[in-house]
Design brief:
This protein is of the alpha+beta class. The protein has one domain. The protein is 18% helix and 28% strand. Strands 1-2-3-4-8-7-6-5 form an eight-stranded antiparallel sheet. The radius of gyration is 17 Å and the shape is globular.
Length: 149
């Protein structure tokens, strides 16, 4: 009986997604304010409690991961997308990296910077930017110093 309980506990730990590590400046007051404004659900995904400072996760399999306090990026030739429900509340995001299962976006011209990783199924990243729309209002309150050209 004890062996079965231990085996079940080990299996649960191994199948649970690992915790998300905080960004360098994730513990800043600006990141704490941002996390307090983030939605409880994002595109139908429930927010999952996290222990790391400046980190928010939506979806049981970490489909969307936000890390506030990431390194601020300077001018870049990478794709920059203004995303939001309308032009007045859009946020400039740089498509920083992409694999066959995820896209990582970074805010452009905001300090602290916000990093959002969106995981997708089927190798089709085209819907990834739509996951950023509901983040525009809270992320848009982080002061903007530059915008995409």
């Amino acid at each position: 009986m004890v062996v079965a309980v231990v085996a079940a506990a080990v299996a649960a730990v191994l199948t649970r997604p690992p915790g998300v590590e905080a960004a360098r400046d994730g513990g800043s007051p600006a990141c704490a304010r941002l996390l307090a404004r983030l939605p409880g659900s994002l595109d139908g995904l429930a927010r999952v409690p996290q222990g790391a400072a400046g980190v928010a996760v939506w979806g049981a399999d970490q489909e969307v991961v936000l890390r506030c306090g990431a390194a601020v990026i300077g001018p870049t030739t990478k794709e920059c997308l203004p995303v939001g429900p309308d032009e007045a509340t859009s946020v400039d995001w740089v498509r920083d990296a992409q694999s066959d299962r995820a896209v990582r976006f970074l805010t452009y011209g905001r300090d602290p910077a916000v990093e959002v990783t969106v995981r997708f199924a089927g190798g089709d990243p085209s819907g990834a930017p739509s996951r950023l729309v509901d983040l525009a209002a809270p992320v848009g309150q982080v002061p903007q110093t530059r915008s995409c050209v």
